[in-house]
Specification:
single chain, mainly alpha, elongated
Length: 94
């Protein structure tokens, strides 16, 4: 919400779409965890406490700053997912 710039509306729509897609992926992962007998810890408090992803300060940020930050976060998440996928393959859980 603290984004500034002429393309704010376009970025806002993109962020909504990304959030929707992430919600689906998170739901799928949580369902798989439960199917394997694990508890899922999906409260906002738990996620904020345990997340290794950095966050921007609650100040105004340019669109370029937001997009750069998102690219970095998606890169980190992608690398973590690839690592988890390797573990699943090794355990023949695909």
């Amino acid at each position: 919400w603290n984004v500034t710039g002429r393309s704010f509306i376009g970025l806002h729509k993109l962020l909504d779409k990304l959030a929707e897609e992430l919600d689906e992926a998170i739901d799928t992962a949580a369902e798989r965890q439960r199917a394997l007998g694990f508890l899922t810890h999906g409260t906002a408090r738990h996620v904020a406490k345990t997340s290794k992803l950095g966050q921007l300060s609650a100040e105004r940020h340019s669109i370029e700053e937001i997009v750069t930050h998102l690219c970095e976060l998606y890169g980190e998440a992608s690398r973590a997912a690839q690592s988890a996928a390797k573990i699943c393959e090794e355990d023949e859980d695909v």
